[in-house]
Amino acid sequence: MFKPLQLYVGLRYTRAKRRNHFISFITLISMLGIALGVTALITVISVMNGFEKELRERILGMTAHATVQSRGDSLSNWQKVANEADINPEVIGAAPYIRAEGMLSYNNRVNGTLIRGIVPQEEPKVSDVGDKMLFGKLENLHPGEFGIILGKDLARALGAFQGDKITLIVPSATVTPTGILPRLRRFTVVGIFEAGMYEYDSTLALVHIKDAARLFRMGDDVTGVRLKLTDMFRSNVITQQLVEDLSEDYYISDWTRQHANFFRAVKIEKITMFVILMLIVGVAAFNLVSTLVMVVVDKEADIAILRTLGATPSTILGIFIVQGAIIGVIGTLLGTIGGVTLSLNIDTIIPAIEQMLGMKFLSAEVYYISELPSELKWNEVFTISIIALFLSLFATLYPAWRGSRIQPAEALRYE
Description:
The chain has helices at 5-15, 21-60, 78-87, 152-158, 198-201, 209-215, 235-245, 255-258, 260-298, 300-308, 313-357, 378-404, 408-412; strands spanning 66-69, 91-106, 109-118, 133-135, 147-151, 165-176, 179-193, 204-208, 224-229, 251-254. By secondary structure, the chain is of the alpha+beta class. The protein has two domains: 5-57 and 262-412, no CATH class; 66-255, no CATH class. A six-stranded mixed beta barrel has the order 2-3-8-5-7-6. A hairpin with a 2-residue loop joins strand 2 (91-106) and strand 3. The radius of gyration is 33 Å and the shape is elongated.
């Protein structure tokens, strides 16, 4: 009358009231365990995606997607390189730069620094530093006036503020009648920026490219040309195209090479967290083994009667696979809904919890990223759900096989 029999009986076993309420409780715990594991996994992976995206945007806000440099020490024809690069439709901005190292001194404080010479009008094409200014603006850099813009932490380490005059000491020396002296130059602080990355805020200083060229005796040469691309995730492909497009042999590097170790570490951490949290889902899924084994023991008489009525071992196998699959599907579905809901609303849930507890999880005084970012990727949600379902189905095989091996005569002997 009921087809298929496995589905009908499996559903009955799942929703029927059992004599042994402990089994029902364990079944509920297994279901909730799967749901909580999937929820935690989706939420944590989404938060890690958000952190990775936030860090990537902050890093690329200060560095270009790609750089073109000469095989020698400097690049003499940067305008030609920029024009040839702009022909590629994947390139949306190009700007020259000079890179050098030095030491800044102010009020008996000395700090190492990375000097970047820029063209203020061209820099917004390749970076977001203009949007990260705390004081002043890029346009305050005028050639010949020797103005300098400092990172927030660098300015704090020196004790310098806007309008102060600081001394830049460069590695090259000047030969004078009195001997060899280090080259010095007084600069006026015309701005302070905050990139949100300690690497840049504590070491980077910006000057006008003509002042940098004069200080480091580069003439009209530059270190290279920085490029901004339409799709930073295709930077390695686009740089290969640029190698073929440019008329001369240049060294072209993209952001994935410059920060390869950092993003490789983030990726490894993400994979590690995925494996660890998936083990939680696995533990919850394999609780189904003990749950279904107890159900099999509790239903031995029922199984024996079904066998005497003509049910085959495969039918009994299917009944318990259906029951375990239902628990796994419901747990995975609840976990997916919970994980997606948390991931999409974590920016409002976390502040509400912080306000309720009266504490800040990520203090802005300690962490550069003071809010929990989240980026939900549906392909990862699908992968997590499929793995959770597979583990649940795998966990049902042994109890279902054990139930199919029950002999009617043995089960009914003491009934």
